[in-house]
Design brief:
- 7% of the residues lie in helices and 40% in strands.
- The protein has 4 domains: 114 residues, Immunoglobulin-like; 79 residues, Immunoglobulin-like (Sandwich), CATH 2.60.40.1120; 112 residues, Sandwich (Immunoglobulin-like), CATH 2.60.40; 200 residues, Jelly Rolls (Sandwich), CATH 2.60.120.200.
- It is mainly beta.
- Strands 25, 26, 27, 29, 34, 35, 36 and 39 form an 8-stranded antiparallel beta sheet that branches.
Length: 549
């Protein structure tokens, strides 16, 4: 008896559906209108046989599976023995067809299907294949808590979890143009900058999905680029932006929406040294954990165009003391401000009002201009601590310098005291010095040039000493004998020598420097030739490392 009742009910329901289909058009969620519109298509297996009994669903192209009404029965069909499916009496508009054979975990998607009035649209055959998945990471934006993402025109959606992640599963292979974000704190918007292709069985990651723009920056270390053969670790890459490679109107006025990722989509620490949207120029430092030598494939990605992003510029994370950076001064501060140390050590520099070097456009952002009379900068409280290296220790000192004039007198660039270490220029030479206790000064020397920017790098590696000029080394060392004890009680100073006793060498007061100084670094490790060369090739005005793609 129960079987008879069930069969009768099923028959009645089927007749009702037929009568309904004869009388009007189906619309998602229920309701009909008069029309003869329809869709017909077929589903194939990967071996091109008919995919009988596949489940095929029809969605309006803007369908939201979370906020939208549930699909009515007339928007779901089962492919027949020939793999054919059909939908009848549907409203005109754009639709998406999603087919699945869940037992085999395969699927297909056909989008942008246009249905016109009083016509039947034939959809090209869809081939089932293994589904993929998409991961989106919203952890860098706090405006999407409690929201969800979805692929419009499908039943594919995911909540945004407490860690900011969203996982879209069972995604048919193919090209995805749109992933929509919906949350209580933001408008519904597409989170994709570009279309993405989902391969069968693979997971695609969408990094920083709320950033509207992205650009790949290739790090070319081959002979056609920086010409470095060895791998370099924890390197601050200089990125120069201008009106030729960046549209400043697409970013926030202060550049606070910048972000960078490496090849594995992990966020990279960066520091904005200068951002001048009006003049359309900027300099940014990005720390890359490994730069491969003799490589033209490695890249990082720059993102911008997210007005809600938190400003992530962090100098201490770029110039990390654990990576050896003990003092880094960009010298781009305003003259009335202290000279900021970018490292966590915070050895900020100061100058008396009467001896404050002027600020001017430098080799990287702004620099300081020393008058050769009384300008200088002191880093207080550095007589001991991280800038105080032992005799025959391991450290590096670098500076960009443009000498204005050469004289018969010495001009000091950076000094940790007459009896410790310093860089200077004399009448014809750049010199890097370390004082040996009761023995004298060991000097590495290269020929000096004026009126142009030069990168000087002094390196002490135990008993070995080097002076690099624009990445080219000299390891010859001369000795000036002296019997004085080695002393380390002086603060670091820029632009002159600390000790009036220096005047005993020549009647030049404090050996004041005349010219420009930029980007000073003191590092507690001996940097090798590849590191020093990469600094020069990246930081020179015609950067040879970074290629904008």
């Amino acid at each position: 008896m129960k079987r008879i009742v069930y069969t009768f009910f099923s028959f009645f329901a089927a007749v009702s559906i037929v009568l309904l289909r004869c009388s009007g058009t189906n619309v998602a969620g229920g309701g009909t209108i008069e029309t003869t519109n329809g869709i017909v298509g077929s589903v194939r297996n990967s071996d091109d046989t008919p995919a009988a009994n596949s489940i095929v669903e029809l969605f309006p192209d803007d369908y939201d599976p979370v906020a939208g009404d549930a699909l009515g029965a007339d928007f779901i069909d089962i492919a027949d023995a020939k793999g054919t499916y059909r939908f009848s009496r549907i409203a005109s508009g754009r639709y998406t067809v999603v087919g699945r054979n869940r037992a085999a975990e395969t699927s297909f998607l056909k989008s942008d299907i246009m249905v016109h009035d009083d016509s039947v649209t034939t959809v090209p055959a869809g081939t089932l294949n293994t589904s993929g998945s998409i991961v989106a990471d919203f952890s860098s934006s706090g405006t999407v808590a409690g929201g969800y993402v979805y692929i419009p025109g499908t039943d594919i959606s995911s909540p945004i979890e407490s860690d900011g992640s969203a996982f879209l599963a069972d995604v048919p292979p193919g090209t995805i143009h749109t992933i929509m974000l919906a949350s209580g704190d933001s408008e519904i918007r597409n989170v994709l900058r570009d279309e993405i292709t989902v391969e069968p069985g693979e997971t695609i990651t969408v990094p920083l999905p709320l950033w509207n723009y992205a650009r790949r920056l290739v790090l070319n270390t081959t002979a056609s680029g920086a010409g470095v053969t060895g791998d370099i670790y924890d390197f601050p890459v200089l990125i120069r932006l201008n009106d030729g490679n960046f549209d400043f109107t697409q970013a926030r006025a202060d550049g606070g929406d910048l972000a960078f990722t490496g090849n594995n989509a992990a966020l990279l620490p960066f520091e904005i040294e200068r951002w001048d949207a009006a003049a359309q120029r900027a300099e940014i430092w990005v720390r890359v954990d490994t730069i491969h030598g003799n490589d033209s494939v490695q890249s990082i990605t720059m993102y911008w165009g997210n007005p809600d992003a938190a400003d992530s510029s962090n100098s201490a994370a770029v110039f990390d003391t654990t990576a050896g950076f003990q003092g880094v001064w960009h010298l781009g501060d305003e003259p009335e401000d202290s000279v900021r140390d970018a490292t966590l050590n915070r050895y900020h520099g100061t100058s008396p009002d009467t001896a404050n070097p002027a600020s001017e456009d430098g080799i990287i952002g702004n620099c300081r201009v020393f008058d050769g009379i009384d300008d200088y900068i002191t880093m207080p409280n550095t007589e001991s601590g991280k800038l105080d290296f032992q005799q025959n220790g391991t450290y590096s000192v670098s500076v960009w310098v443009m000498a204005d004039t050469f004289t018969n007198f010495q001009q000091t660039l950076i000094s940790k005291g007459k009896y410790q270490y310093f860089l200077w220029i004399d009448s014809t030479n750049w010199r890097f010095w370390e004082y040996q206790d009761r023995t004298g000064w060991e000097a590495s020397t290269q020929k000096a040039t004026g009126k142009q920017w030069v990168l000087l790098t002094g390196v002490r590696d135990g008993s070995e000493q080097y002076l690099y000029v624009n990445g080219e080394p000299t390891d010859s060392v001369s000795l000036i004998s002296a019997t004085n004890p080695r002393t380390t009680a002086s603060d670091l100073i820029v632009g002159r020598s600390h000790d009036p006793a220096v005047a005993e060498w020549a009647d030049a007061g404090f050996c004041n420097f005349k010219g420009k100084i930029d980007e000073i670094r003191i590092i507690g490790t001996p940097r090798g030739k590849d590191w020093v060369r990469l600094c020069y090739m990246n930081q020179r005005r015609d950067d040879r490392l970074v290629l904008f793609k």
